[in-house]
Amino acid sequence: MRQSQYEGDLVRKFMSEQKMVRVSGDRHCQYVSKDAGEWSQQNFYPEHIYLNVVGGFLEGSVFQLDGKPRLIFRHDSPDGDLLNEYIVDSQ
Q: Where are the domains of the chain?
């Protein structure tokens, strides 16, 4: 096994054992899903929470509500208009 493969496996194992939110992005489209999704507006799958193939940007804000952390994702259009808001509450 290559060293980079071994290290990558260690990092993925560690991350899968944590209570965390992982964020990755692609500037060509916007979607929120529990698993990997497609990049076509017609391919809306049950694991997609939000899908919008229009571009734009993603903003994430972390704050506390009643002493518990909360994360809000906001998807904005290329012109800065709010398209979607998704709240992640701590569990």
A: 21-89
Q: Letter for the amino acid at 87?
A: I
Residue 10: strand, helix, or coil: helix
* CA 13 vs CA 6, 30, 50, 58: distances in Å: 11, 27, 27, 27
pLDDT in tens, the chain (91 residues): 788 889 989 988 898 888 777 776 665 555 566 655 555 677 777 877 888 777 788 889 998 888 888 899 999 988 999 999 998 877 6
- CB 12: neighbour CB atoms within 10 A? 10
Element (DSSP H or E) covering residue 4: helix 3-16
